[in-house]
Specification:
Number of domains: 2
CATH topology of the largest domain: Rossmann fold
CATH class of the largest domain: Alpha Beta
Order of helices and strands: EEEEEHEEHEHHHHEHEHEEHH
Number of helices: 10
Helix content: 25-40%
Number of strands: 12
Structural class: alpha/beta
Shape: globular
CATH superfamily of the largest domain: P-loop containing nucleotide triphosphate hydrolases
Strand order of the largest sheet: 8-9-10-5-11-12
Strand content: 15-25%
Amino acid sequence: MSKMVPMPSHSILPQRDVDKTPILEARLLGIDFGGLTAVDNFTLTIGRTEIAGLIGPNGAGKTTVFNLLTKVYQPTRGTILLDTKDTSGMNTIQVNRAGIARTFQNIRLFKNLSVLDNVLIGIHNSMDYPLVTSVLRLPQYWKQEQEAKEKALKLLSIFQMQDLAKYQAGALPYGAQRRLEIVRALATNPKLLLLDEPAAGMNPSETAELMENIRQIRDTFQIAIMLIEHDMNLVMGICEGIAVLNYGRIIAKGTPEEIQENPAVIEAYLGKRKEG
């Protein structure tokens, strides 16, 4: 795990990323629903190959942050820079093509389709050939389709799932469906992969395997990964920088060691200790 280095912008980045522009800069991000402020002054920088964590109590606003970054919700205020480009005005599809992919708390697979077809859907999102080529099934179409199939099988092999390619996605065990959703997100060629509770419902051995898979994904594709997770063993074992959210605001940022010792974090999770 790379040493974290303080930056002039009051952020910390992995040492290996300090000479590169950050993949994500969220500045004073906020959203209001009617009179309720769900997220406020959210400011975070993520290095190009960082594994970052976003944690906090239930209802803190973590998934709302993911929805803002992916434009499921348009921010009420603030700026999101993805690879130095301002994403204001973009919709979810445009943000995905610009480089952010995500998974969800509740698995969203095409459960009646095969494992392979689920991954191909992700790949087709980034493919580009003229409509006439597709309609007339010209040689270029078949060439790209074969390349897409080969890429899908290679992605599935990260999780040793290539032999399940023809299985129906909805028939897979829960943990395998979680892994398939990550593979499908990877199929869109992201620069930043957002994982929303990837270990939910997994047993300890599956979680340990997931940790290794996440590291492998980062190392193989040289991308950044940000995860929301309640399993603190996973978070503290894999994340380099961690931001803690409570009532829609960041209350702490730091390394796993700093976060574990932070009084504000302890209070947010455990409540304030009574005096006397």
